[in-house]
């Protein structure tokens, strides 16, 4: 039984059909990377899985339990599915520590002192123990994103969804965030939407190429980079290689 299973997911916004029947599975500790052009439904898929935007059609199971059913407890589900946003989504009026601990108190019902101890431990994991008392305005983009990762980790999720986690960062800050994500590989399942091909090549168990609301092709990094089956996959990866140059270790 897969840890996460999506079957025939459809999603429209008005007359625009964004997802046209997406199916995928994930096992515990797996890292899957979704690639594709902008507007092809990658971020929408993550939001459907997290139920931020529930699918119009199709089913999602987490540990064998359907989470798209009418009786599903969305708050309980979101404890198990972490989400790291492109634009950080931190509370600007709260310190880094409080941004991580507040969910533990409000959602998990932990005592404040215990929540803060756990939050500090997670900030230490992402290299931000010294910044615990700083507010988002005092942090760099890369530091904010690492707070977002610490916040997701603190909830002990089964899977963390990453929605283009480095796209809002200055180039010199991307490496720190990718290093943290690499350190999580095989400790927690990660489903990552990204254009960082070095990360995809080095860390992913599987790469999924999406276009026009469909999964065109998926496979291991070596298969996808060296011998993709579909013409569109070849074209996309060729353009990415031209845009970013030869990929170096780590992205």
What can you tell me about this protein's structure?
With 251 residues, this protein is of the alpha/beta class. 38% of the residues lie in helices and 24% in strands. The chain contains nine helices and ten strands. The protein has a six-stranded mixed beta sheet, with helices on both faces. A hairpin with a 2-residue loop joins strand 1 (4-13) and strand 2 (16-26). The relative contact order is 0.17.
Q: Which short descriptors sum up this protein?
A:
10 strands, alpha/beta, Rossmann fold, four-stranded antiparallel beta sheet, 251 residues, six-stranded mixed beta sheet, disordered C terminus
Strand and helix map with partners:
Elements: E1 4-13, E2 16-26, E3 31-35, H1 42-49, E4 57-62, E5 65-66, H2 74-80, E6 81-84, H3 96-106, H4 112-125, H5 141-154, E7 159-163, H6 171-184, E8 189-193, H7 197-203, E9 206-211, E10 214-219, H8 221-226, H9 231-244
Parallel strand pairs: 3-8, 3-9, 6-7, 7-8
Antiparallel strand pairs: 1-2, 1-4, 4-5, 9-10
Helix pairs in contact: 3-4, 3-5, 4-5, 5-6
